[in-house]
Amino acid sequence: MTALLIFHPLLRKLWNTVFPISARRSEGRRTRLDQRASFDYVFAIMFLFILHGFSAFKILAILTVNYQLATKLPRKSVPAATWLFNITVLFANELGQGYQFRSLASFISPPVNVQVEEGIQAVDSSLMSLGAWMDGYRGLLARWEVLFNITILRLVSFNLDYYWSIDRRSSDSLEVSIVVPSLYMV
Amino acid sequence: MFQACTWSNTSKKKQLDPANLSERDRVSIPADVKDFSYRNYVAYTIYAPLYLAGPILTFNDYISQLKYRVASIERPRTIRYGIRFLLVLLCMEVILHYDYVGAISKARPEWDTYTPAQLSLLSFFNLHIIWLKLLLPWRLFRLWSLVDGIDPPENMVRCVSNNFSTQLFWRAWHRSYNRWLIRYIYIPLGGSSFRNWRQTVRSVVTYLLVFSFVALWHDIQLRLLIWGWLIVLFMMPEWIAAALFPARKWEHRPTAYRMLCCAGSVVNVLMMMSANLVGFAVGLDGLQSIIRGIVHTWSGT
């Protein structure tokens, strides 16, 4: 962890020299925001796969669904959908114990019965053995679902900040048009 | 003149320098619509230094800090913060070496053999160790983030021994989470007010909802839910006492008021010790046997 504390900021320094902030206001100019966010984005994906191995796909799937909820739903239903989804994920992660790929695969192709010498035996389907193989690569922190609680808070923060940002913009223009005449009347 | 007044008012609003906002403004001023992109979203949710344990940064604050480096990011300050982190680590080592209350409660001893004073001290020092155990990772991750140029909120802003009010305690313990709860649950639910009975009941329900969420969020376990409800129950004496003895009326007798506060704070500390023990250390059974131990010893002598 201490190594990361030094390695990560140094890597950002390198990134910043390779992709400098462009000063000119031409097409495709890179701002400080772009520079930092694209580094954070690339590092985040790498970090996820190193920490959690194949489980990173599950996290990215949850993130994507949550993002779609905030941006695609009608504005009115965003808060309710956000809370419902995130509390459900909170419970589902706990009950599903991080969704093993092998058990996920068993929903699609269940174990097959195979004739062996003593009788019939249930054997994993090929999809299930692929799942079991993927479960073998779960990275440095196998139990990603334990740490995911804190990320849930950020998912809610993004969705509600987005929801309120639209709210604020429309009410801001209203505020100006209401406040100014009332002050004239005084 | 009124026109001038409104004009200066709006210009004051406009004059907020986006490069030099306070933490409060960074949280409350929304990011631009185009900033809510998928790239920024993933960069924010999986921002490496804060991914594992926080402190929690809100999205608006993160975007604002990506645009402009905040004034509080200074090398000498970060170095001082690093040194403070090492000192706290040393403190934890020393405490664990000489003050092994964690080992005592893990060993599930016969609680009856302890005197009430010993039990209370055991709980109190256990709380110290829990406090340090949480403080260390938070400070480490905040240090990493500071080195990287992002300033998240400090999570523990108060020494655990310096708490006499339950409400202030929760404001200073895991502070970034407390800010998150206030912004995203407490305020949307309507906040709290104790002006009349109806509002008081509604406020208590709000608090119950907030702490139920807190408990479920920590871990889906019954003892944590009970912990959350105990916290709300234990906040009530403070609210009632504040209503019964308003500070205004005691203005002329400051010493007497201070003594009243002292008595209240002793009760608060005792309640806080027992609530946190249920949630994080010994569980409800443990608490029952400790209370039985205390009562038993008192009635026995």
Structure description:
With 186 residues, chain A is mainly α. Chain A has helices at 2-18, 32-52, 56-72, 78-96, 101-108, 126-135, 144-185, and strands at residues 112-116, 119-123. Chain A has a two-stranded antiparallel sheet. The longest helix of chain A has 42 residues, at 144-185. Chain A is extended, with a radius of gyration of 24 Å. By secondary structure, chain B is mainly α. Helix content of chain B is 70%, strand content 0%. Chain B has 14 helices and no strands. In chain B, helix 11 (197-218) packs antiparallel against helix 12. The N and C termini of chain B lie far apart (79 Å).
Q: How would you sum up the global shape of chain A?
A: extended
Low-confidence stretches of chain B: 1-12
What share of the residues of chain B does DSSP label as strand, in percent?
Answer: under 5%
Protein chains sharing the most extensive interface:
A-B, 56 and 51 residues
| Helix-residue proportion of chain A | over 70%
**How big is the Rg of chain B?**
23 Å
Q: Main beta sheet of chain A, described?
A: 2 strands, antiparallel
Number of strand segments of chain A = 2
Give me the secondary-structure category of chain B.
mainly alpha
Key descriptive features of the protein:
heterodimer, A: 186 residues, mainly alpha, two-stranded antiparallel sheet, 7 helices, 72% helix, disordered C terminus, B: 301 residues
How would the blueprint of this fold be written?
The complex is a heterodimer of chains A (186) and B (301).
Chain A: H1 2-18, H2 32-52, H3 56-72, H4 78-96, H5 101-108, E1 112-116, E2 119-123, H6 126-135, H7 144-185
Antiparallel strand pairs in A: 1-2
Helix pairs in contact in A: 3-4, 3-7, 4-7, 5-6
Chain B: H1 2-14, H2 23-28, H3 38-45, H4 48-51, H5 59-67, H6 75-98, H7 101-106, H8 116-147, H9 166-172, H10 175-186, H11 197-218, H12 222-244, H13 254-281, H14 283-300
Helix pairs in contact in B: 6-8, 8-13, 11-12, 12-13, 13-14
